Amino acid sequence: MSVFCDVQQAAPVAVFKLTQDFSKDEFPNKVNLGVGAYRTNEGKPWVLPVVKKVEKLIVHDDRLNHEYLPILGLPEFRSSSSKIVLGDDSPAIREDRVGGVQCLGGTGALKIGAEFLRRFYNGNNNTKTPVYVSAPTWENHNALFNSAGFEDVRPYKYWDAEKRGLDLSGFLRDLESCPERSIFVLHACAHNPTGTDPTQEQWKQIAEVMMRRKLFVFFDSAYQGFASGNLDKDAWAVRYFVSMGIEMFCAQSFSKNFGLYNERVGNLTIVARDADNLKRVLSQMEKIVRTTWSNPPSQGARIVAVTLNSPELFSEWKDNVKTMADRVLLMRAQLKAKLQSLGTPGTWDHITDQIGMFSFTGLNSKQVEYMVKEKHIYLMASGRINMCGLTSKNIDYVAESIHEAVTKVQ
Amino acid sequence: MSLFSDVPQAPPVAVFKLTADFREDSHPQKVNLGVGAYRTDDCQPWVLPVVKKVERLLVEDNSLNHEYLPILGLPEFRSSASKVALGDDNPAIKENRVGAVQALGGTGALRIGADFLRRWYNGVNNAGTPVYVSAPTWENHNGVFTDAGFKDIRPYHYWDAAKRGLDLTGLLDDLEKAPEHSIFVLHACAHNPTGTDPTQEEWKTIAEVMKRRKLFPFFDSAYQGFASGNLEKDAWAIRFFVSQGFELFIAQSFSKNFGLYNERVGNLTVVSKDNENLTRVLSQMEKIVRTTWSNPPSQGARIVSKTLNSPELFAEWKDNVKTMADRVLLMRDQLKSKLIALGTPGTWDHITQQIGMFSFTGLNPKQVEYLIKEKHVYLMASGRINMCGLTSKNIDYVSQAIHEAVTKVQ
């Protein structure tokens, strides 16, 4: 009799199951539009040239060793990461009220932030503080905040399926009617999975309500630079909120914009009212990190820090990012053009209106099933596609398949 | 008014505070016998030659990229890591009932194991299952299990200060009295901080009681190879327990034996009764990992995996490990001889009887304070010293300082 006999089988994570099914499929024209990682026009992963260059610099630098990093991470990584999102000349940084915690990707940054908030925000160990995540949102947000101890994770209105855009009035209504001090997880740019972001004017409205109702701002920033191709543009919302004097968290991921998915490079940026409050917050974050991973992994953080702190490499990196963002924009333009020329029923403007890696096609679950089973095109049940999975070689096949799905399946 | 005004300042982690104080000290003969990392005889960190070699191989390998690892980690790392602990030809492995989770160092492995046990062991979400840790133990054990949700963490008798050795009677007594199904955190070898391990006969007795009383063994294995210089010898206890049919966890760290401290290379080995139970356990571990760090960092795991899976590199690694272990043994020998030659009161056999990186000197807090403040020799308040901090250049100074502390301070 095993001590584990009552352990239930957990369901696999959907997006990885999709990739697994894709891998097993032998169909010659199969296409994977599932998991969110960049692909070249040859359908291959891309190690950024600047990353390759820096990895070589690091391996040949005999001054480096493998001694433990500080608990909060590599100092030059933390400061340059926070600068990337807030801007070099951010007044908050100059006022010494911005800190960073190097974390394991965006997930790790969300986790440490969530664990801190559960312990110290809105009272001590107040597990009942509502946490709002967008409807829909990244599949891991909900579970992550639950496992940090929050008992009340709720959706806020976000995607309007009918008009295929932002449900701003629903969103604002939820902001007005939620309990004060609720935590809101906001996507800094390139909303996952809808690709639909508030405009600057809409962000201003959102910020006004959040400030008035004392709601806590927790940004998830996984696509800075990747969305529009411009780092500052993609950070506008975060910087606007900071400029309004709000104390907030921003979970940053360098998985996508550095292509460093498997080195787990993330940063939790904390903006506090002043240095003293920041100091106490960071000291508690140390305690949380210590019992989770003790101190963070060096390799990815070093690559990012060396890059961000060298004008030449930084410039090369921005080029590499633009390369990725531009290819995505090209695929968006082409997919829409092809659907229009095929006369596929419906409007397809949302494909080019949406931003970032993902597009919320609007395909319903039956149509998605058709795509997967009949056409061997793998996408999420929600209708979300990863634009990076499109290439000049497969875009015709995909466009035709979408056409078939929409016309044959209701 | 800040959202964080009520957040208290957390005290720093003692061992890192010690190193911080050491750094600020400008005394020319200062010695750091605090944090547990290997140092050469020149008191420098040591990047293992085999690690340097493999890092160069990896950076030149254009078949590698940075795509996400599976949630449970790099497969070839997981299997080779478990083999190192259990032995290549372990029946449990052949019976397909051994699995693993690549984790963030030993800390991460402990944490995932603890999170799993709190959710699924001894009932569902039984936060009241007692968890026993040795008295004394690594300072972070308590925090890891507490943050995993366990409410009842207790000490088990281990160190006998009077006789400067293992309190076996006390230990066995605690095993007999512990509630059935309690979890026991056992140090696989080179006990931290006492350096005192049970003998093989003692382990057999411990195992017998644990089996009879249905106690769960959770091994912490951070020093395999480092303790005696021999991988198999250091894994004897673990392998004995497995041979007795226990289901158990092993939190392995490759921080010390690979000198890869900052790449966070760890592995949680799971031994279950059969493959079916193992599968369900691993599926739940995936869920836990997904909301903690999503998937683990690649660099360190690749280095270890490449090394363990190549006969040539594996042999070179074992050599490097023996180099470290031998230097520690030399320092133990010399420290004891010098104290005996100085006629320092007390017996000093424990210095050479103890095993691994640490020695529990037996110095009391006043004597420790004297060493730090008057002699600028930094060690933990418990009297624990890191033998790696000793070198041929400072060993006379340190022996002299200990002599003074023992004779002048009571």
From TrEMBL, chain A:
Keyword set, alphabetical order: Amino-acid biosynthesis, Aminotransferase, Cytoplasm, Pyridoxal phosphate, Transferase
Record EC number: 2.6.1.1
Superkingdom classification of source: Eukaryota
Any one GO molecular-function label of the UniProt entry: 2-aminobutanoate transaminase activity
GO BP annotation list: aspartate biosynthetic process
InterPro entries according to UniProt: Aminotransferase_I/II_large, Asp_trans, NHTrfase_class1_PyrdxlP-BS, PyrdxlP-dep_Trfase, PyrdxlP-dep_Trfase_major, PyrdxlP-dep_Trfase_small
GO cellular component: cytosol
Cofactor(s) the protein needs: pyridoxal 5'-phosphate
A Pfam family assignment: Aminotran_1_2
Keyword Secreted: no
Catalytic activity line of the entry: L-cysteine + 2-oxoglutarate = 2-oxo-3-sulfanylpropanoate + L-glutamate; (2S)-2-aminobutanoate + 2-oxoglutarate = 2-oxobutanoate + L-glutamate; 3-sulfino-L-alanine + 2-oxoglutarate = 3-sulfinopyruvate + L-glutamate; L-aspartate + 2-oxoglutarate = oxaloacetate + L-glutamate
Domain Aminotransferase class I/classII large: 29-402
Keyword tRNA processing: no
Subcellular location as annotated: Cytoplasm
CDD domains, alphabetized: AAT_like
Record note on quaternary structure: Homodimer.
Xref: NCBIfam families: PRK09257.1
Note: In eukaryotes there are cytoplasmic, mitochondrial and chloroplastic isozymes.
Entry's family note: Belongs to the class-I pyridoxal-phosphate-dependent aminotransferase family.
The protein, known as: Aspartate aminotransferase
Record lineage: Eukaryota, Metazoa, Chordata, Craniata, Vertebrata
Automatic annotation (TrEMBL), chain B:
Tree of life domain: Eukaryota
Enzyme Commission code(s) on record: 2.6.1.1
Reactions catalysed, as given in the entry: (2S)-2-aminobutanoate + 2-oxoglutarate = 2-oxobutanoate + L-glutamate; L-cysteine + 2-oxoglutarate = 2-oxo-3-sulfanylpropanoate + L-glutamate; L-aspartate + 2-oxoglutarate = oxaloacetate + L-glutamate; 3-sulfino-L-alanine + 2-oxoglutarate = 3-sulfinopyruvate + L-glutamate
GO molecular function: 2-aminobutanoate transaminase activity; L-aspartate:2-oxoglutarate aminotransferase activity; L-cysteine transaminase activity; pyridoxal phosphate binding
One GO cellular component term: cytosol
Compartment(s) of residence: Cytoplasm
GO BP, sorted A to Z: aspartate biosynthetic process
Pfam families: Aminotran_1_2
Name by which UniProt lists this protein: Aspartate aminotransferase
